[in-house]
């Protein structure tokens, strides 16, 4: 049986009133007597009447909804960021529509078109690993759709951005390995064009430079799907451990790469795996199942989601065009076994 929502016409028929009278009563119109308003509101509550959100959005030119595009909800960082997004959005009267790109630029475009067709009031976006061309976002932004980028951002659109201090986090993770006695430090990272890849690679290089350790191109492995494809991960890790001058440690640049690296090493020669130290960007506690000594950099994902949402709602609700935008850079934390060290 097809679900049929209750309409104003149903209320009018039941009460013997005109639809215009019921409509004015529901929106507290001054033309309606207090008694008529009371009768309509009591009946609407009794039958659990809910206004049609599509009709309301057409009338108000607002849907009270926010679109979110991330690579994968199962990623611990993004699941925590989404919790932060929802905590602000729902308390501000907005619904959240979440989509996943699965690191596909094509799927990202499809998701964007779907959200735009739903007339969302604004977008929160973290770019996919495949995304080089951001014209699909720029077109909507130029037409006035508020967009805030977080984590994986672009400099080609002038708007608010919320990121972690990727350079400092990568620097400190690499420096930790150096201070632990490592000198042949490999770097496992995502697509070369991503903002987080560039910033974390720069932090890794700077730590090597500080301690006069030569940078080696062969020690850097790019996984263009950001760790979502385990075969790609295993090829990258195997190419490192098969080098003549084998790395004594690996710094992994994101959540999926860190856990994927641990899995790949576990499947390789156990003696080799146990000899390689790992640090990585990860918000997952599951890494302790693979390596209790893993040192990691944790991003304030929940806070990033909250700040990005607050900035977006300010854009949506601003009475005047916003021309002053900001990039918020949040500190990360180093998790050394069970010890937390702030990274500023």
UniProtKB/TrEMBL annotation:
Transmembrane segments: none annotated. Signal peptide: none annotated. It holds the Pfam family Peripla_BP_1. InterPro entries: HTH_CRP (IPR012318), HTH_LacI (IPR000843), Lambda_DNA-bd_dom_sf (IPR010982), Peripla_BP/Lac1_sug-bd_dom (IPR001761), Peripla_BP_I (IPR028082), RNA_pol_sigma_54 (IPR000394). It comes from the Bacteria. Keywords: DNA-binding, Transcription, Transcription regulation. Residues 1-45 form the HTH crp-type domain. Residues 6-60 form the HTH lacI-type domain. One of its GO terms (molecular function) is sigma factor activity. This is Substrate-binding domain-containing protein. It comes from Hufsiella ginkgonis.
């Amino acid at each position: 049986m097809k679900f049929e929502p209750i309409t104003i016409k149903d209320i009018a028929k039941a009460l013997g009133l005109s639809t215009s009278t019921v409509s004015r009563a529901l929106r507290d119109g001054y033309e309606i007597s207090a008694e008529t308003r009371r009768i309509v509101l009591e009946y609407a509550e009794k039958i659990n009447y809910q206004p049609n959100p599509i009709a309301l959005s057409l009338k108000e030119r607002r849907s009270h909804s926010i679109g979110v595009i991330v690579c994968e909800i199962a990623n611990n960082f993004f699941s925590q960021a989404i919790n932060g997004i929802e905590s602000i959005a729902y308390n501000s009267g907005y619904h959240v529509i979440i989509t996943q790109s699965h690191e596909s630029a094509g799927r990202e475009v499809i998701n964007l078109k779907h959200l735009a067709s739903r007339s969302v009031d604004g977008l929160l976006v973290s770019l996919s690993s495949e995304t080089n061309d951001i014209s699909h976002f720029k077109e909507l932004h130029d037409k006035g759709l508020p967009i805030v980028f977080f984590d994986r951002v672009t400099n080609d659109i002038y708007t608010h951005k919320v990121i972690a201090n990727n350079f400092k986090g990568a620097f400190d993770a690499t420096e930790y390995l150096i201070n632990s006695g490592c000198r042949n430090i490999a770097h496992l990272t995502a697509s070369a064009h991503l903002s987080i890849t560039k910033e974390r690679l720069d932090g890794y290089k700077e730590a090597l430079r500080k301690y006069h350790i030569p940078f080696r191109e062969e020690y850097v492995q790019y996984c263009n799907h950001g760790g979502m494809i385990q075969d790609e991960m295993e090829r990258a890790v195997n190419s490192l451990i098969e080098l003549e001058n084998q790395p004594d440690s690996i710094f992994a640049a994101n959540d999926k790469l860190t856990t994927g690296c641990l899995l790949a090493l576990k499947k390789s020669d156990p003696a080799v795996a146990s000899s390689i130290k790992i640090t990585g960007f990860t918000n997952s506690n599951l890494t302790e199942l693979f390596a209790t000594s893993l040192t990691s950099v944790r991003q304030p994902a929940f806070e990033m989601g909250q700040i990005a949402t607050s900035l977006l709602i300010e854009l949506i609700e601003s009475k005047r065009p916003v021309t002053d935008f900001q990039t918020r850079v949040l500190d990360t934390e180093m998790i050394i076994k069970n010890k937390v060290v702030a990274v500023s």
